[in-house]
Design brief:
Four Helix Bundle (Hemerythrin (Met), subunit A); 76% helix; 127 residues; mainly alpha
Length: 127
């Protein structure tokens, strides 16, 4: 299987999962799956543009920088990437979960879903 397609298929699955979690109001995991969607989409871009295996990191900003994608982003896109990057760690560890969970609700997660979709579509258009 083509490695770019592999990453994109995983990203699409994660985005669909985020949508399912919206329905069940599992806000913490909606945010986490949005992060996962973008991580895998950026890794697809990295793989496609650099013909190399992406590094085993979860920092979206760093991945985008290493792939050359960050330099192409608008300030708004960079701010979104910087904001969503910590959701990977904060959703996994108990000390952060309750704090993060209290900041999430339907409106926040709906915005995350929309911004994730827009960012993912933009990255795909670059492939």
């Amino acid at each position: 299987m083509d490695k770019v397609k592999y990453w994109l298929d995983l990203a699409d699955y994660d985005y669909a999962t985020a949508g399912d979690l919206m329905t069940s109001k599992r806000w913490l995991y909606v945010a986490f799956m949005c992060h996962q969607t973008l991580e895998k989409t950026i890794k697809a871009y990295y793989t496609g543009c650099l013909s190399d295996t992406p590094p085993y990191i979860h920092n979206l900003t760093r991945l985008a920088e290493l792939s050359g994608l960050y330099a192409q982003m608008t300030n708004e896109q960079r701010m979104f990437l910087d904001a969503i990057t910590p959701l990977n760690i904060e959703a996994r560890y108990p000390d952060y979960k309750s704090l993060l969970a209290s900041s999430l609700n339907h409106d926040v997660c709906a915005r995350l879903m929309r911004q994730t979709y827009e960012m993912q579509s933009w990255i795909k258009s670059k492939l």
